Amino acid sequence: MAKPIVTSRNSRSPIAAHPIASAAIAVLVIAAIFFALYVPLYASATPKAGDFPFFYFYLLAYMPVLAIVLWIVIMLQRRLQTGQEAGARRPSGRAR
Amino acid sequence: MSDVNVTTFTIVVILFVIVTGVGFAAVRWRRAEDMLHLNEWGLGGRGFGTFVTWFMLGGDVYTAYTYIAVPALVFGSGSIGFFAVSYTIMVYPIIIIFLPRLWSVSRVHNYITPSDFIRGRYGSRGLSLASAFTGIIALMPYIALQLVGIQAVLTVMGVGTTSNNTFIKDLPLFIAFLVLAVFTYVSGLRAPAAISFIKDTLVYVMVIVAVFYIPTRLGGWGHIFGTAEAHFTSINPATKKPYGTFVPTSGVTGSTQLDFATLALGSAIALFLYPHTITGTLAAKRRYVVRRNTALLPIYSILLGLIALLGYMAITDKTTAAEVKKAGNAQLAVPYLFQHMFSPWFAGVAFAAIIIGALVPAAIMAIAAANLFTRNIFTEFFKPDASPRLQTKVSQWASFVVKIGALYFAVELPHTFAINLQLLGGVWILQLGPMLIGGLFTRWFDRYALLLGWLAGMAFGTIAAYKSASPTVSHWASSSDIEFGHTVYIGLSALIINLVIAVILTVIFRAAKVPQGADETLPHQYTADPADLPAPTPVGIGLGAAEAGTAGAGTAGDLSRGRPAPLPDGVHAPGPLPDGVHAPAPSGAGAKNIDGRHMTIGHLGNGLPSCVEGIASLQ
User: Fold this and answer.
1) What is the average per-residue pLDDT within B462-489?
2) pLDDT tens for residues A31-81?
3) Least crowded by CB within 10 Å, which of A25, B110, B135, B440?
């Protein structure tokens, strides 16, 4: 479900102006979903990280990584938007 | 009962009183010019910034049920309970795709509920009604489950009596709920938003202390995982199968990797289809607040992973495990664990965290359900000319009625019934996916095709859930069933059926030139970021073409609440205006900021079915 959505988002004009940033957003979002969705990747008790079996360690460690990845996505999205708004419409200073 | 610990009880009462005070005082927070407007009562003024939104969505998404049911599922069945962790991972990359679009279009058109959007997008009252109906029936058992969570805590505290009279037995629950109902009535969404600060703080403290302190009492994490692994790989004499799984298996049936993945994906898609999470989102001040929170909320999810591990701690602590087994109710695992591990005063803090953690989402859910009723049933079908003031009054009373209904559920019906309904709620709400998420990206779908797809998904999901059986229960045993030889989440199968039917019928209906409803939205409105509130729409949701003529230049000044004003830009203006045009707003013109973040994790409900199994396996 994610793929077509991302693509359609990316097909809009401001995105065409920033193909690399747009592609990076798509890749990051799809990867963030994939590495949680593809369970065989981490459904294993070994190797252990300290006392934590791999399965549990992986899921716990995922969260902070996810926060960073999504933050990068937001930064990239802002670039797309700023580029777009800089053109004509930029009513007032957008959010910090 | 006799064994109430006075210290624990006192702490809980003190914290509850504080929360009550905050709930009532919240009406003054970012005081509205006119509280009797749904933008104010139902969406907290639509001005929450990043910070408040983070707290509120965190408080909204992570319910008492999270603290009770997820560890209970882990306690009863092992690794499958961790689907909840995987799902709270996937939910954020998924919502970053569609939630900002929903916020933007809702802001431009002053939509208060998701069904308002569906009405405006497809020009279909039927589809709007279907979605409002789905939302309400999915929320009712969800609220009831908040109460079940509170009851679990009260039971372990020994509060309440063994009297056979329901009213006397559950008196503390009644009091808690009555207080909740009254401050929600008075303060609207501001109450849960303000209380969520207290809630989140308490929950953080509780979890951090629990994960650092309890393992030292239980011989360390190595021992906890070792005990859990030994337990779940041993054979249950009653069923001749292992008690659970320590990691998802690679088989085709049972607690498999596929089951885990489909549960997590389905739940992740469903979470932000729930009306209460959307209510929290729409209360945000700006688009960037919504986006930013998708990256900030995973911080909150770390908690969930740690909370899930409490289930393994409960297995490791022999006293707790024995008591839970004796009570035959896995929901008591966490409360018992806290009671045995913590000193009485800290147990009080932890119990208060869970109780308050139930009240915040319950309040938001009641508001969301009430808004759906008011906007998409009452105003739409019975009183199209309802003023904002009347709508708010109706919503206030509806929230009251919804809560009474949930209370009835919780105390009168068997808990398994509420849990089953909650399981179904997750399956049902997922059926809004094609019309809501699909509608945010394309207008290709035909409204009748969507309605029939929805109907098929609802029917399939309900029947499949009813038919699912386990060795101990003949119906409603699980949220997963076997399709083509593989165990998968029912909600996701139903969603696929829904989507396939919607696509096929759309192709047919389009070929047959079936008339399409009017779409009042414009492409640029899905990315708009207006700083000010849209004008309150005078007539329900009816942004009919009739009003188009009156649409003058809506200036920012008109956007202050309560005043009937011309429609905001672009709605029917000739020619697409660039977004944000209507907002050359003198900043501060009536718009207050409130940060609105809210997500409720309500969704943990999907785990419920498995909880049932977990409970069953205890017996």
Assistant:
1) 72
2) 989 998 888 888 877 787 778 888 888 988 898 899 899 999 888 888 777
3) B440
Give pLDDT tens digits for B174-221: 888 888 888 888 888 888 888 888 888 888 888 889 888 888 888 888
> Per the CB < 8 Å rule, is A64 touching B85?
no
Candidate from B79, B264, B298 with C-beta closest to A66: B298
Tokens of B309: 């591990």
ipTM: 0.76
Taken as a whole, chain B contains a residue count of: 619
* Partner B, chain A 8-27, Cβ-Cβ below 8 Å: 8-9, 12
Percent of chain B predicted with pLDDT > 70: 78
In a domain, B18, yes or no: yes
Looking at beta carbons, which pairs linking B377-382 to residues 24 or more positions away fall under 8 Å? B377/B129, B377/B132, B377/B133, B379/B540, B379/B541, B380/B119, B380/B125, B380/B128, B380/B129, B380/B540, B380/B541, B381/B125, B381/B129
Q: Does A8 contact B441 at a Cβ distance shorter than 8 Å?
A: yes
CB-based contact B54:B293 (threshold 8 Å):
yes
What pLDDT, on a 0 to 100 scale, did the predictor assign at position B587? 36
Q: Domain range for residue B190?
A: 6-219+255-440+601-607
* Mean pLDDT for the stretch of residues B344-352: 88
| DSSP classification of residue B592 | P
Say if A36 is an interface residue toward chain B (CB within 8 Å): yes
Q: How many beta-carbon pairs below 8 A join chains A and B?
A: 143
Half-sphere exposure of B48 (CA within 13 A, CB side): 33
Q: Could you tell me the pTM of the whole model? A: 0.79
pLDDT digits (tens, 9 = 90+) for B353-389: 998 888 889 888 988 998 898 888 887 788 777 787 8
- For residue B87, give the CATH number of its domain: 1.20.1730.10
For chain A, report the end-to-end CA distance as a whole number of angstroms.
Answer: 32
Structural domain tally of chain B? Answer: 1
Please report, to the nearest 10 degrees, the dihedral formed by the alpha carbons of residues B313, B316, B317, B322 taken in order: 110
Q: Decide: helix, strand or coil at residue B407.
A: helix
* pLDDT value of position B274: 92
Check residue B339 and give its pLDDT. 86
- Whether B539 has a pLDDT exceeding 70, the answer reads no
Is residue B326 within 8 A of residue B336, CB to CB? The reply is no
Task: List, as one string, the DSSP characters of B429-458.
Answer: HHTTHHHHHHHHH-S-S-HHHHHHHHHHHH
Candidate from B97, B288, B531 with C-beta closest to A2: B97
> Is B563 among the domain residues?
no
CA of A25 vs chain B CAs: smallest distance (Å):
10
Tokens of B58: 């965190």
Instruction: State chain B's mean pLDDT as an integer.
Output: 76
* Residue B300 C-alpha, separation from nearest chain A C-alpha, in angstroms: 9
Q: What type of residue sits at position B508?
A: I
- Residue B552 covered by a domain: no
Query: pLDDT for B77-117, tens place per residue?
Result: 888 888 888 888 999 999 888 888 898 888 888 888 899 89
B-chain residues near A45 (CB < 8 A): 229, 246-247
d(CA B272, CA A32): 18
Nearest CA of chain B to the CA of A20: how many Å?
18
Q: In this predicted structure, what is the pLDDT of residue B168?
A: 63
Q: Is A89 an interface residue toward B (CB < 8 Å)?
A: yes
Flag if B97 and A9 touch (Cβ within 8 Å): yes
Structural domain spans, chain A: 2-87
In a domain, B433, yes or no: yes
* Shortest CA gap B12–chain A (Å): 30
